[in-house]
Amino acid sequence: MGVSGTQQSEIVAELASYLEDLYEDQRARGMSESEAIERALKEVNGGRRLGRRIRKAKEEVMNERTRKFWFPALASMAAACGLVAVTAQLSYKPHIILLGSDATMLVYPAWVLGQPLLGALGAYFSRRAGGSRLTRLTAGLFPSIVMLAVICIVALAQGLSLGRGEFGRMDWEMLARAVMGVIVIPSAAMLIGAMPFLRDPKAQVLARN
Amino acid sequence: MTKRVRSKIARGSAELAILALLSKEPLYGFEISKRIEEDSGGALRFNLASLYPMLYELEKRGWVKGQWEANRAGRDRRYYCLTPAGKKRLALLRREWNFFFKALHRLAGVSNA
To answer: Would the pTM of this model clear 0.90, i.e. be above it?
Structure first.
């Protein structure tokens, strides 16, 4: 049947129990033994089709969390990696934004322009799987969340390497500018792409009302 | 007037029927089938071939949970009960069906009970 041996035994036992109950019920209603047996056997007409339907119902497919979050998030992440590869191949240079007299911030326009697509991809797949609004948002922003985590880990490692008491010597301003250019601005662009998919489909909204 | 609802319509209501029944008390397969037929006045009838794939699907989705128990007669039966996720699913289905019946009523003058 395509399910494990134990599962198969349980299914057979359960279906057999149903047929026994049906037989007894028919007998209690006055049917003869042969009529009741025939009635019960009719229930399993098309046994192969029944077996296929049960196998399909029992097969382990992606669980809810994978369908609603991980698959959309990783799809968004994979698209982000693809975008990085493309922009690197095409040697797009960063745009330097001057902030005051001696501070700069790097922004990669080609990277930013591609962010709405990443946000839309994650949010779309999550909505299609029935994800909540928060799940859709998180799936859409997943590449930025990962990038933020990486920056935090690198900053922490650098801080630890400077030694105790030297943590304050880190260039927090530079870090903030990097976060702005690499996380905040792309995230805002991702959010723009995700926004159309943060709304619930019309039928669900009407049903809720 | 046709006493039994046509299979296409009946199939669409199977999930609602099963979850609604299990919201009252845990039941085993044959009981579920019998209660649906009785409570619907014979309009809905699910046999083994239509009931069990649906039950297993609901169980896979985490909306019902099946457990083997010995009943008073000593025969082991698999009882199904509604999970908390199943209660939420039932609430959503009820809202959707209410919305559907209202739409049908506006369109075709069909009213629910």
So the answer is: no
Question: Do the chains contact at B48 and A207, CB–CB below 8 Å?
Answer: no
- Residue A169 is given by DSSP the state G
Which domains does chain B show, CATH number per domain?
7-105 (1.10.10.10)
Q: Which of residues 24-63 of A touch B (CB under 8 A)?
A: 25, 43-46, 49-50, 53-54, 56-58, 60-61
Q: Do B52 and A15 touch (CB under 8 A)?
A: yes
Gap from A23 CA to chain B (nearest CA, Å): 11
Q: Quick one: tokens of A48? A: 């192969």
Q: How far is A14 from chain B (nearest CA, A)?
A: 7
List of chain A residues whose C-beta atoms are within 8 Å of the C-beta of residue B99 = 206-207, 209
Instruction: Please state, as a whole number, how many other Cβ atoms lie within 10 Å of the Cβ of residue B50.
Output: 18
Tokens of A110: 């080609």
ipTM comes to: 0.85
* Residue in the structure block whose two tokens are 């239509």: B50
Q: Which residue in A43, A60, A207 is closest to B47 by CB distance?
A: A43
Contact criterion met (CB < 8 Å) for B49 and A21 = no
Of A194, A184, A172, A187, residue with least CA distance to A97: A184
Q: Which chain B residues are Cβ-neighbours of A14 within 8 angstroms?
A: 29, 52, 78
How does pLDDT run along chain A (209 residues), one tens digit per residue? 457 788 888 899 999 999 999 999 999 999 999 999 998 888 877 778 888 888 878 876 556 788 889 999 999 999 988 888 888 777 666 667 666 666 666 777 777 888 999 999 999 999 988 888 899 999 999 999 998 898 888 888 877 777 665 556 667 777 787 788 788 888 999 999 999 999 876 555 554 44
